[in-house]
């Protein structure tokens, strides 16, 4: 009897110690960000024609945010804000000119090394960290191998993915974004120049010699040739997959990329199941050029875009099944979102609409109308967060940074402004109000709009200082420039600002006036005071997305073979793994 009692006591003690060890283990983090996904594309946000059962299940088992806001309506600045919890203008990741993102892998701009990402912050707590998928925050500074902006330099132990975004240039047969965004500029300038010279010559105002004509034609030839070479070589120079610091495929084959990245994510979870981890899965889909694996092609009612969304949903399901299989679900905070709204102007070379759906909300990507910045926000953590809860308070993708630091037991940096707020009290119902009284909506480095959620009020005031000029006028997009811009002559300034109450007009269809809103001027006065305080908190920093920083620099070009071979290689074991699986089937 004594031996039996001793055995029971020992087993009980071991179980108690194990329980204490488990309860003391730091939580894991899995963040999944889709590219250019519209809030209206998901079933859990009201879509009835596009099946997303795995994402919908995530929302049913967790908390759904219905006023979750991207800190910027473009890829590069939004991702910088997500990783650091800071408005992009604070890190120099907001452009002062026309182009607000990186287009070339051989650019020198990127997320500054002095910025603290949530991955870098939790490293000291024993976390294994990885980013799988799209980075889009720079690569090199001074030479082609310094990797100063690489994920490994920002706290991520492991990287498998693309440094750049996925463009239609990376997808054979889908045309070139360079033509749509920039191509018309040199051709337009050349055409205007030729017509002007001809008219002036005919009018007798100038005499055009053969030498001038010849010189001009040579210049035209050089411009057209350089542009043509840039378009032709773009996939090889910018569309490549890296594993850590090494290029393993250049250019990449997009058709099976989501499957390969899903396999990499699962392998990371399996390798790190016994220690705390942070996984950032950054999908290339559903950015154009669109792609979907053969398993999903033709399955949706919405063409290739719908097929791509369904493949993303499948991938989310694979990640969640892996967490369940490894008994990690109850100790893992899962967050699913998009980097900004859908790219409404994307039309394929065959005339098919390739942009997503922003639901009831106005406009899309690159604008600060709600359709451009109101994004899916789903957080799931069984036993810690309530299931099926819906929160309509203003929240931001910058809130993930302080939430991670709090849960990992890391103090917030005291030497910089952190614009995000810890979400846990709001998610768990400890508080009913968001800490975001004001939100500042930037279009590149220009303050475009401000959102104000007054204390003790349900109102959500939003003031626009300028708005993009839609083309055609009756649309909610900028088809003439392929994306809405932040500069003259593509915007209209408003004085007084346009004012909306989103609590009554979420579609932003009817701007208020002094006649329709008695508080019109008092609301604008409060917003202007908030803008002044916000401006005082900004410090000058080097601009990372300036023309000089984003231009292609040959000496920074990553290349897995040689330029004479157009930097071509294929040495990714995931490709061989997929081939073997297909052969078995």
TrEMBL record:
Keyword Membrane attributed: yes
Domain of life of the organism encoding this protein: Eukaryota
Key words of the record: Calcium, Hydrolase, Membrane, Metal-binding, Signal, Transmembrane, Transmembrane helix
Cofactor requirement: Ca(2+)
GO annotation, cellular component aspect: endoplasmic reticulum
Calcium recorded as keyword: yes
SUPFAM superfamilies, per database record: Alkaline phosphatase-like (SSF53649)
Residues in Sulfatase N-terminal domain copies: 27-410
Transmembrane parts of this sequence: 177-200, 212-234
Pfam family, one: Sulfatase_C
CDD domains (alphabetical): ES
GO molecular function: arylsulfatase activity; metal ion binding
PROSITE patterns, per the entry: SULFATASE_1 (PS00523), SULFATASE_2 (PS00149)
Similarity field: Belongs to the sulfatase family.
Listed name of the protein: Steroid sulfatase (microsomal), isozyme S
């Amino acid at each position: 009897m004594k031996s039996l009692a001793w055995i029971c006591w020992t087993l009980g003690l071991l179980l108690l110690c194990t329980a204490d060890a488990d309860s003391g283990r730091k939580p894991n983090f899995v963040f999944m960000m889709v590219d250019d996904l519209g809030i209206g594309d998901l079933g859990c946000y009201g879509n009835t024609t596009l099946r997303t059962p795995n994402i919908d299940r995530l929302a049913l088992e967790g908390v759904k945010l219905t006023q979750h806001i991207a800190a910027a309506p473009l890829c590069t600045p939004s991702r910088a804000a997500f990783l650091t919890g800071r408005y992009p203008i604070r890190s120099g990741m907001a452009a002062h000119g026309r182009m607000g993102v990186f287009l070339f892998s051989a650019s020198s701009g990127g997320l500054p090394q002095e910025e603290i990402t949530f991955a870098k912050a939790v490293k000291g707590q024993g976390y294994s960290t990885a980013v799988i998928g799209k980075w889009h925050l720079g690569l090199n500074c001074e030479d082609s191998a310094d990797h100063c902006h690489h994920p490994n330099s920002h706290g991520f132990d492991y990287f498998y993915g693309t440094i750049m975004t996925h463009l239609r240039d990376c997808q054979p047969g889908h045309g070139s974004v360079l033509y749509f965004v920039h191509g018309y500029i040199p051709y337009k300038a050349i055409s205007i120049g030729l017509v002007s010279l001809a008219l002036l010559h005919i009018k007798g105002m100038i005499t055009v010699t053969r030498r001038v004509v010849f010189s001009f034609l040579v210049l035209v030839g050089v411009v057209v040739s350089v542009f043509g070479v840039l378009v032709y070589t773009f996939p090889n120079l910018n569309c490549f997959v890296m594993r850590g610091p090494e290029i393993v495929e250049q250019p990449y084959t997009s058709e099976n990329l989501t499957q390969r990245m899903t396999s990499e994510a699962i392998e990371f979870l399996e390798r790190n199941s016994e220690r705390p981890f942070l996984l950032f899965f950054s999908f290339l889909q559903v950015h154009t050029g669109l792609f979907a694996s053969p398993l999903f092609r033709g399955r949706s009612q919405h063409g290739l875009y719908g097929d791509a969304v369904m493949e993303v949903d499948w991938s989310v399901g694979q990640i969640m099944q892996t967490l369940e299989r490894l008994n990690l679900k109850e100790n893992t905070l899962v967050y699913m979102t998009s980097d900004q709204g859908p790219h409404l102007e994307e039309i394929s070379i065959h005339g098919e609409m390739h942009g997503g759906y922003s639901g009831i909300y106005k406009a899309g990507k690159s604008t600060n109308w709600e359709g451009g910045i109101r994004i899916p926000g789903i957080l799931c953590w069984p036993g810690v967060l309530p299931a099926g809860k819906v929160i309509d308070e203003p929240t931001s993708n910058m809130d993930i940074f302080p939430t991670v630091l709090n849960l990992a037991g890391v103090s917030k940096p005291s030497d910089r402004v952190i614009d995000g707020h810890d979400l846990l009290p709001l998610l768990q119902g400890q508080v009913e109000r968001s800490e975001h009284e004001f939100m500042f909506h930037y279009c590149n480095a220009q303050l475009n709009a401000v959102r104000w959620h007054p204390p003790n009020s349900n109102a959500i005031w939003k003031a626009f200082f300028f708005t993009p000029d839609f083309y055609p006028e009756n649309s909610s997009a900028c088809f003439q420039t392929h994306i809405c811009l932040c500069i003259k002559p593509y915007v209209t300034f408003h004085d007084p600002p346009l004012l909306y109450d989103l609590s009554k007009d979420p579609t932003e269809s009817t701007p208020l006036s002094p006649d329709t809103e008695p508080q019109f001027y008092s609301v604008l006065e409060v917003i202007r005071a908030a803008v002044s305080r916000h401006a005082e908190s900004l410090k000058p920093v080097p601009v990372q997305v300036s023309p000089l920083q984003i231009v292609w620099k040959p000496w920074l070009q990553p290349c897995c073979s040689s330029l004479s071979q157009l930097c071509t290689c294929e040495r990714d074991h995931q490709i061989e793994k997929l081939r073997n699986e297909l052969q078995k089937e």
